[in-house]
Amino acid sequence: MTEKRLFGTFGVRRTANDVLTPEFASRLAASYGSIVQGTVAIGGDTRTSTPMLKYAITVGLLSSGCDVVDLGILPTPAIQYAVRNYYDGGIIVTASHNPPKYNGLKFVDEFGIGTPDDMELEVERMYFDSEPNRVSWDKIGDCFTNQTIIKEYIAETLKRVDVEAIRNRKLKIVVDCGSGAGCFTAPYILKELGCEVTTINCQADGFFPGRDPEPIEPNLQDLIATVKNLGADIGLAHDGDADRTICIDEKGNFVLGDKTFALVEKQMLKENGGGIIVTTVATSQAIYDIAEEYNGEVIATAVGDLLVARKLKDTDGLFGGEENGGLIFPNFVYGRDAAMTVAKILEILVKEGKPLSELVAELPVYYQQKLKVECADDLKQEVMAKIADEINETTDFELDTTDGVKILKDDGWVIVRPSGTEPIFRCFAESDSQEKANEMAEWGISLVEKYKG
Ligand code: MG
User: Fold this and answer.
1) Average confidence score pLDDT of the chain
2) In this predicted structure, what is the pLDDT of residue 148?
3) Are the C-beta atoms of 153 and 78 separated by less than 8 Å?
4) How far is ligand 1, taken at its centre, from the CA of residue 235, in Å?
5) What is the pLDDT of residue 132?
6) Which fold, 257-340+349-361?
7) What is the Cα–Cα distance from 419 to 323, expressed in whole angstroms?
8) Catalytic annotation on 431?
């Protein structure tokens, strides 16, 4: 495949007003608009640079003949929901979980799914090698606003769970939106669900004064302490654009994303009597174990939430997700959805009548190790080919080359994947003991080192 020059795994992410200038954003939006030729929804997160970039992409889109509908500040999945139902395309201004100086542009197709590779290459070709289609004066687009999408997104989320059952339990909840786009949805959804809500960092602020927007354990210490102090049933946290939800159990334990994924998978399969589950090759064996027990079928894609979303659409899948806790409910939004994840987790707590720590403890247990090793970009393909050759010739382990090289042994697996953005390989192993997981990850690293010269 042709190497992409601008786009990463989901859109373009750069330092705001340094690399990601208004001129850059405007030309890129005009290139995208030249291909879409329709009505494009735009919206974004709470970053200081978001209004500037929204104006920039607006003029780019208008000059390519597209009409523009500004949806305001709202979560990424709310924009994806709106595009799928009402518009021909969308541009989301966000840098997700990255620090405040960054911003980005996520482009989606008419289904609200991150744009496919061939479309991104076409946008890049127009950006670098030719000119966006600048329409004549009488074809320039119009600007509109739509302030109703947040309300609709909240209402549609609530429609998909048993609101009465959750209301009756009067759950005690602490929610930390990290001053991101979730401030405009999460507290309101929890109120509608009859919860006793305590908010942390739920005032929108592009400086993210309370915590870094990435919802990892070191950044969630205030949330953890508050859950413990208040004796809450659960703590919830979102990233900057509120497409991911992280849970803290009633004891204050950080629940890993793959546990949340497994928990919801189990419930979805139980409720629906089975179905197709889509995930990536880097996801836990637990997902397969649960699928086997509850009549599910697992399909694994290369790493990337938009690949999972597209596969869910193509296979009419039931549910999907990634090991980082990005969960996709394809009957609602073709992308990771934090609000739906919250609603579903609360429904599970209520229906199962058990505390979150207990529900997590019932899931299959595996141990993981993640390591990385440097490797020059131009050697990556050769290294992967040589590792695959060695495994094929000297062992009878199963190989999966959907993304990088995944080696499956009887008691676990290791995947060696080249980073798309840095000169490194990431090596991720899983097994039934921590020691074995460590050993397998180190073995993966040693294979890269052997062949990188
Ligand atoms: Mg995000």
Assistant:
1) 96
2) 98
3) yes
4) 18
5) 97
6) Alpha-D-Glucose-1,6-Bisphosphate; Chain A, domain 3 (3.40.120)
7) 17
8) no
